[in-house]
Every structure is written in structure tokens, then in C-alpha cells.
Amino acid sequence: MAIKARHKRFILIAIGLALLGLAATLVLNAFQSNMVFFYTPTQVDKGEVPHGTGFRIGGLVVKDSLKRQDDGLTVHFSITDTAKTVPVVYKGVLPDLFKEGKGVVAQGKVGADGIFVASEVLAKHDENYMPPEAAEALKRAQEQGKTVVMSK
Q1: What is the tens place of the pLDDT at every residue in 33-83?
Q2: Both 93 and 139 in a single domain?
Q3: pLDDT band for position 142 (50/70/90)?
Q4: Domain match, 87 and 128 both
Q5: Are the C-beta atoms of residues 143 and 95 closer than 8 Å to each other?
Q6: DSSP letter string over 36-72?
Q7: 63 lies in the same domain as 126
């Protein structure tokens, strides 16, 4: 029994749609596994962050919190949103624009001891830029009557 041309087209279209669906699923899965969410120090303090997966934390580097270890690469500092503060440890070269009192975003995980272990540190690139979530957190803290001290 021969397959009609109409049935062949239908089979080819069905196979094409199945392959397209598979490709879309693979692409969306790759995006989801590479997605990194942003949290404030207050959210980290409240335990609203994912456990076992990386995320970004942003805020201001607390003045006089930067401490370098003898190996020259490991640094300890704290990030605040003016309401809560989270200690951070990072092993690597800090960006040139990294300064106390300035905006920063760090990517990594919270350790069992509550210290954020950063795998990457990003400093804001000019005076006008701050991640929208960090700017909103600072704005909320200011509205609640807390003073924010930022250096230029």
C-alpha cells in the first residue's frame, strides 16, 4: 500500500513541528539554567534567597569594611542597602571602579556561615548608574528615614 503525497506532507509537517518544539524546549531550558536573580542585603538577611544556587547581591560597599588578606587576592568587605549588611568574601582582582561607599553587584552564593562567597564582583561604571533593584532598595530605605552616605 503506497502512502499518498498528502499523507507524506502531513508526516513531514508533524516531524518538523516536533523538532521545532524540541529546539524551543532546549533553548528555554538553557536560558533558565543561566538566569541569575538579583537580591538586596535585606532579602538575603530575611532568607529570601535561593539555597544552593548562585544569585546576585547589590548595594553599597560599607565604608572601612574592605580588608585584604596576605595572599593579595582574597578580600573581605560588606554590602549594605542601608537597612541590612551582608559580609562578602571574594578571591580575585577587584574592578578598578570598586570603592568603599560606591555601588557594587556581586555574584555568588551564601555559605553556611552566612558570608556571601562571590565568584564575580562588578562595580558601577559611572555616577548615574545603579541596578534598578539596588536603586529602589536605597530609595525605600531613605523614605523610611534612614540616611544614606555615598562618596563621590
Answers
A1: 666 677 888 888 888 887 777 888 988 899 999 999 998 889 999 999 888
A2: yes
A3: low
A4: yes
A5: no
A6: --EE-HHHHHTT-SPSSS-EEEEEEEPTT--EE-TTS
A7: yes
Total residue length of the chain? 152
Burial class (CB in 10 A: 0-12, 13-18, 19+), 105: buried
One-letter identity of residue 95:
P
Nearest CA-CA partner of 61 in 88, 22, 33? 88
Distance of CA 38 to the CA centre of its chain: 4
Q: Which residue has the higher pLDDT, 143 or 92?
A: 92
Number of domains in the chain: 2
| 109 in the same domain as 75 | yes
Q: According to the model, what pLDDT value does residue 146 have?
A: 46
